[in-house]
Amino acid sequence: MNTLLLHCRPGFEGEACAEISEYAAALQVTGFARGKPASAYAEFVCSEADGAQRLMHGLRFNQLIFIRQWARGGWLALPEQDRISVLLEALQDYPCAGSLWLEVFDSNAGKELSNFCKKFEAPLRKALLKAGRLLEDAHKPRLLLSFKSGREVFVGLAEASNCALWPMGIPRLKFPREAPSRSTLKLEEAWHTFIPREQWDERLSGEMTGVDLGAAPGGWTYQLVRRGMLVTAIDNGPMAESLMDTGLVQHLMVDGFTWTPRQPVDWMVCDIVEKPARTAAMVERWIGEGHCREAVVNLKLPMKQRYAEVRRLLERLQEGFAARKLKVSIACKQLYHDREEVTCHLRRLGR
Ligand SMILES: C[S@@+](CC[C@H](N)C(=O)[O-])C[C@H]1O[C@@H](n2cnc3c(N)ncnc32)[C@H](O)[C@@H]1O
Question: Where is the Ribosomal RNA methyltransferase FtsJ domain (predicted)?
């Protein structure tokens, strides 16, 4: 139980290691991080038996940027036949679980294993319920079984209120056929990630106004329009006719980095491919000068030192708002629909 397993986007194992190592040092949890390139997971192996639990208790899952899912536990070898008996025996060392998720890693090997997991889940669930190891209780920890192959599984636990919202941290979002581009799912995932569902009516209401910087062809604008908002779409490129026909979109062919609205708006979103420092400075100005209350912006990642650079930009944003004496909540995550980028959500609090 002394290992913390961390799911991440393949190719970002180094970032997951850097991130968890920084927090482990701050929480004085000793151990080492390791991650095989392209495996889509990393591990933090703690020197002490309760290290992984202390790390999870000392951190909120939401504050992690490159880590999509986590679980404390250990690896278990499985036989070709009767895997369930071996799992049941290993679970004697674990507390009873309140829910069960079977997971694979976001790699090609993982994709091939998902069918196995689908078939294995029902008989395993039945056996766990029968043995009293699974109680269907939201207050008990979630049992997360991450399969590396049919013969190797990480048996892990996480608090249901302090882990990913979806198995493997991957939301199953349906691409809306009317949306003009696939990146529409990025903004939809950002909302699911950063805004609790019960607050959507209030914080994403049809009474609101929004600005979409770098809007063409309109995947993000589509999401704002879908909520009923009046949107100013900024881009030199053409917007989809279907969006313009709604009558809710004003398209301005101007520079998204210098234009600001005459009246404050509720939302600003930005998906322009630019140096991340420039995008961060722009969103600081928008929120800081009161041009918008909430924002979702994409920060494109540099080639090297990706974790260090994101942390540096987030710190700079925090310092900027502190200097302006403003309270702003800042969250940042590499979403499933993000590639070489992370998504930031900012919200001005108070007046
Ligand atoms: C990744 S695309 C945006 C895709 C859009 N979010 C969607 O869902 O359809 C980036 C857009 O930013 C625009 N762009 C680049 N630099 C810009 C600038 N300085 N001001 C406004 N738009 C800009 C490009 O023309 C391009 O259409």
Answer: 181-273
**Active site residues per annotation:** 300
Annotated binding site for S-adenosyl-L-methionine: 183, 216-219, 235, 255, 271
29 Cα to the center of ligand 1, angstroms:
43
Pocket test for ligand 1, best of 236, 269, 270, 278 (most atoms within 8 A of CB): 236
Three-class secondary structure assignment of the chain: CCEEEEECCCCCHHHHHHHHHHHHHHCCCCEEEECCCCCCEEEEEECCCCHHHHHHHHCCHHHCCCCCEEEEEEEEECCCCCHHHHHHHHHHHCCCECEEEEEECCCHHHHHHHHHHHHHHHHHHHHHHHCCCECCCCCCCEEEEEEEECCEEEEEEECHHHCCCCHHHCCCCCCCCCCCCCCHHHHHHHHHHHCCHHHHHHHCCCCCEEEEECCCCCHHHHHHHHCCCEEEEECCCCCCHHHHCCCCEEEECCCCCCCCCCCCEEEEEECCCCCHHHHHHHHHHHHHCCCEEEEEEEEECCCCCHHHHHHHHHHHHHHHHHHCCCEEEEEEECCCCCCCEEEEEEEEECC
Atom of ligand 1 nearest to the CA of 219: 8
What is the Å distance from ligand 1's center to 300 Cα? 13
Q: Do domains 3-169 and 184-349 have the same CATH topology?
A: no
The tens-digit pLDDT sequence of the chain (351 residues) is: 899 999 999 999 999 999 999 999 999 999 999 999 999 999 999 999 999 999 999 999 999 999 999 999 999 999 999 999 999 999 998 999 999 999 999 999 999 999 999 999 999 999 999 999 999 888 999 999 999 999 999 999 999 999 999 999 999 999 999 999 999 999 999 999 999 999 999 999 999 999 999 999 999 999 999 999 999 999 999 999 999 999 999 999 999 999 999 999 999 999 999 999 999 999 999 999 999 999 999 999 988 899 999 999 999 999 999 999 999 999 999 999 999 999 999 999 986
Residue 216 CA to ligand 1 center (angstroms) comes to 6
Domain 3-169 part of CATH 3.30.300.30: no
Report the CATH fold assignment for 184-349. Rossmann fold (3.40.50)
